[in-house]
Write a structure and sequence with these properties.
Shape: elongated
Helix content: over 70%
Number of helices: 6
Radius of gyration: 24 Å
Order of helices and strands: HHHHHH
Largest sheet: none
């Protein structure tokens, strides 16, 4: 019974604090910056998913040709394509984590406006972590596009290097 009364009192207090339209409007305005960043990350994730899909399909096609024993000079590109796939996947993971943290930032901002314990430190830490994740995602994207823009000769040379490193690790 006491728990019921406590939760009813807490709910009543929360309703009283959120009844101010001006305060709610202020919180919505403060959450616009993170919302725009979420939109940008969404657009970025769309691009990265398209790139990853193309890479995965290309790797699958070349691996199928290799398994079937069909001679193809492009099979030598597999190590670079696999590395690009890895960078794309890492980039997507970082940016998805950043988007989740930004959602947490917005949630914490709203909650902190209406509860007594200050949560500013948590909001700041989540924002810093989100920016670190965005940085990691963009860095992975940079590495992936750097590999993608190499000339065919560079790609073959890099593929041979990657293959020899993998063989050394296995052997």
């Amino acid at each position: 019974m006491e728990l019921y009364l406590t939760s009813a009192t807490l709910a009543g207090e929360l309703l009283a604090r959120t009844s101010s339209t001006a305060r709610v409007q202020e919180m919505v305005q403060l959450s616009l910056t993170p919302a725009f960043l979420l939109a940008a990350i969404g657009a970025y994730l769309n691009v990265m998913n398209q790139r990853l899909t193309w890479i995965v399909e290309r790797v699958h096609m070349l691996e199928q040709r290799e398994e079937d024993g069909i001679p193809d000079e492009e099979i030598g590109q597999l190590p670079v394509l696999r590395k690009r796939r890895k960078f794309s996947h890492i980039s997507i993971n970082f940016c998805t984590a950043a988007a989740l943290l930004i959602c947490l930032v917005v949630t914490l901002m709203f909650v902190s406006a209406f509860v007594k314990p200050p949560m500013g430190t948590y909001v700041a830490l989540c924002w810093i972590a989100a920016m670190a994740m965005v940085f990691g995602g963009l860095l992975s994207f940079l590495l992936e596009t750097r590999l993608a823009t190499r000339s065919l000769d560079d790609t073959r040379r890099i593929s041979r290097k990657i293959e020899s490193r993998e063989n050394e690790r296995e052997g």
